[in-house]
Amino acid sequence: MNANQKADRPPLLARVLKTTAKIEPNETRAVLLSFGFSFILMTAYYILRPIRDSLSSNWTDAELSTLWTATFFFSAIAVSIYGFACTRVRVQRLVPAVYVFFAASFVAFFLANRALPDPDWANRVFYVWISVFSMLNMSVFWTFMADIYSKEQAPRLFGFIAAGSSIGAIAGPTIAVSLVDAAGRENLMLLSAVLLLVPIALIAWLLHWRAASEDPGSPRAAVQTQTIGGNPFAGFSMFIRNPYLLSIGLFIFLYTTISSFVYFELKNLMEGVDQNARVQIWAGMDLAVNVLAIATAMFGTSRIATRLGLSFTLACVPVLIVLGMAVVAMAPMLWVVVGLQIVRRAGNYAITRPGREMLFTAVDREARFKAKSVIDVVVYRGGDMVSGWAFTGLTQGLGLGLGAVAAIGAGIAAIWAAVGAYLGRVYKRQSGEPAAASSAGHTTAEQTI
Fold first, then answer.
1. How many domains does the chain have?
2. Helix (H) or strand (E) holding 395
């Protein structure tokens, strides 16, 4: 190999990533920064999540369902405000502004927890707000990713980028477990606030990279510096009128129903456990989930999506949940439900979440910024509200035990799997993917979630 050939050869890391994760050398830096972006966001969230979840066992099923109802309404308000901002503020300023706002809110909670005399009400407000943040935070991130990367790039890159979230979800609870006794939860809020300011520089660099990689005369490049414009509430009407978006909403609604059933079962099984031990159990689950998710997301998801297709990608985890719920129905014990929670969430982070984010690369830019947040936040939290009250009705109203509720959950998971398979087929038709591409595993039209 002569000197010129050596100079043109990509660095070792770029060559390794191309071989193992299908990342092209010209994409390496952008993907690694996107990876870091998702890592920081999830670290900030997961520092606070075990604290939020530890509070849930202080309340009855009805009280928790009431808080989930409040979360739904506050989520709808937050999405409406975000939709209004989309019509007035350019993306270059909108995305960083979201994270600055949430950082400021955590500083406000830090001050409020020092000043308010009634900790129970402060805990309830904190629980609702973290639940709003958890959805809008990542919805904005994935909307930004779908705006940065093309339909061809998404199936190859989104799984690797999502692995940053899994590593962040390991770092976050590790920090929480290590510091909660020494620093106190109020100081953890300040730490999360500081972390949320870091992505501002990453956003600016990624926007610059995308602008440099676009053909200046292309339609995609022409809209990148424009505001989204239009009606601030258009996301709601787009969602209602579009069968494709409605199907995505149903998929997420069913996902949240399963999540809620498992969450409530865990909450009830931990009623006799003291609060610090609950924090450790929830944080331990977070660690186990994300250790399992990392390798799959970094090196397996792109191969699953490109070789087996999006229908398989979206349906495989729901099928596993059907089996897991059947096991819980026969043995509704804490360690069994903990195992189901770990499998469910690891599968979601590594496979289901990147898969469903790919679906949004097939819609236009206005739908991505407006309708996506409606689905990710309002539909998600609406699913929480409905399923929370449904669980309460089954247990406190009808008097069903956890095993019987798990059997019902298995049926819901089966419907969830069917919807996932259907969405994958619809996406394939909309992408115009030839049948041979899927079987050959080519990274062409199919690779647009």
1. 1
2. none
**Which residue shows structure tokens 């940065």?**
148
Q: Domain limits at 124? A: 23-440
Q: Rounded CA gap, 173 and 46, in Å?
A: 6
DSSP for 250-298 reads HHHHHHHHHHHHHHHHHHHHTTTS-HHHHHHHHHHHHHHHHHHHHHIII
pLDDT tens, position by position, 380-424 = 888 888 888 888 888 888 888 878 888 898 999 999 999 999 998
Q: For the chain, report the end-to-end CA distance as a whole number of angstroms.
A: 40
Domain for residue 57, yes or no? yes
Residues in the chain: 449
How much helix, strand and coil, in percent to the nearest 5, is found in the chain? 85, 0, 15
CATH code of the domain covering residue 282: 1.20.1250.20
| Banded model confidence at residue 304, pLDDT cuts 50, 70, 90 | confident
Q: Is residue 271 part of a domain?
A: yes
How many CA atoms, within 13 angstroms, populate the side-chain half-sphere of residue 192?
A: 36
User: Residue 438: what pLDDT?
Assistant: 31
